[in-house]
Write a structure and sequence with these properties.
Elements: H1 4-20, H2 29-39, H3 46-57, H4 62-87, E1 91-92, E2 95-96, H5 98-101, H6 104-123, H7 129-153, H8 161-186, H9 191-218, H10 221-224, H11 230-233, H12 239-247, H13 249-255, H14 264-274, H15 277-297, H16 305-315
Antiparallel strand pairs: 1-2
Helix pairs in contact: 1-3, 2-6, 3-4, 3-8, 3-16, 4-6, 4-7, 4-8, 7-8, 8-9, 9-15, 12-13, 15-16
């Protein structure tokens, strides 16, 4: 590949091709049509791309690596299908959420089916499949714990910044940790190396999520593929919300008192910018991206240059 961006485009194309080639049955239609629909969205494929980049660094077997990458993307989509129900989000990847196009019962079953397909893929890996499945399922459980904390935190005005950071490490960081560490597990790397890859992914995931919270306010809804401001309307305790509540409680309460007003998002953006909350949050995301780089620097004997490039890509993304 002549450039890193061309490599990313190539990996994304390969992942999308193999997602379409998954042997998903046609019947029962009630189950498999929503599954195919959920996987047809224009996802960024950041997670399977990270799997492949980490795998290239570890010289992992390409066929097994693709199975891990697809399983990770399936897991991600499984969580999104269920999260959209829990968070009342009606758009995902530029199209209707599964529960919005069909109904909640259909979406729950589709999510379960997607997770099962991911497990079948991993069980077909010839080398170290038990260790890979164990790591994968531990990450899945952490993602569920993170979503549980996210729901518990809604409209809870006592949630601290440290509690928020614990939540996003479980909900986002643990999966990116798996994306990074599973290829090292696949090749039988030392536990110390696996841990460094996991720590890299977790730090990257925290930076990713904090940056995502910023895009939820300042991003382009067409690029994001979903409506902006839904997290605040649902009472979610993001880093910016926590800072606003702690530093400017009265003023913040007045702004979010009427989320249905036409200029609601304009008021939110102005408030965060004028009170320095936008810049503070950007600085925190930057701290985690730097921690991710520090973890890569601890890995000896492995060329991680493409992973450094990936950190740069994630921290400058606009969608």
């Amino acid at each position: 590949m002549s450039t890193f961006n061309e490599l990313i485009i190539f990996i994304r194309k390969e992942v999308n091709r193999d997602l379409k080639r998954l042997p998903i049955p046609k019947r029962p239609v009630y189950l498999y049509e929503p599954i195919r629909f959920a996987l047809s969205g224009n996802g960024k494929r950041f997670r399977p791309i990270l799997v492949h980049l980490a795998g290239r660094a570890n010289n992992a077997d390409p066929e097994s690596l693709m199975k891990i990458a697809l399983a990770i993307e399936l897991l991600h989509n499984f969580t999104l299908v269920h999260d959209d129900i829990m968070d009342n989000d009606n758009m995902r990847h530029g199209q209707a959420a599964v529960h919005s196009k069909w109904d909640e019962s259909t979406a729950i079953l589709a999510g379960d089916g997607i997770n099962a397909i991911a497990q079948i893929l991993l069980s077909g890996i010839p080398d170290r499949s038990n260790a890979i499945c164990r790591f994968f399922n531990q990450a899945t459980l952490e993602v569920c714990e993170g979503q549980a904390l996210d729901k518990e935190f809604e409209n809870d005005l006592s949630i601290t910044e440290d509690q928020y950071l614990e939540m996003i490490e479980k909900k986002t960081g643990s999966l990116l940790g798996a994306c990074s560490a599973l290829s090292a597990t696949l090749v039988g790397a030392d536990q110390e190396v696996i841990n460094h890859f996991d720590q890299f992914g977790r730090a990257l995931g925290n930076g990713f999520q904090i940056h995502d919270d910023l895009l939820e306010i300042y991003g382009n809804p067409n690029e994001m593929g979903k409506s902006l401001g839904s997290d605040i309307a649902e009472g979610k305790q993001t880093m910016m919300v926590i800072k606003a509540r702690n530093l400017f409680g009265k003023e913040w309460g007045e702004i979010i008192g009427d989320p249905n007003r036409i200029d609601f998002m304009d008021k939110i953006r102005s408030f965060f910018t004028e009170n320095g909350i936008e810049n503070e949050t950007k600085g925190l995301a930057q701290t985690y991206f730097d921690l991710a780089r520090n973890s890569l620097e601890k890995i000896d004997g492995i060329n991680c240059s493409e992973l450094f490039d990936f950190v740069n890509l994630v921290e400058t993304r606009s969608y």
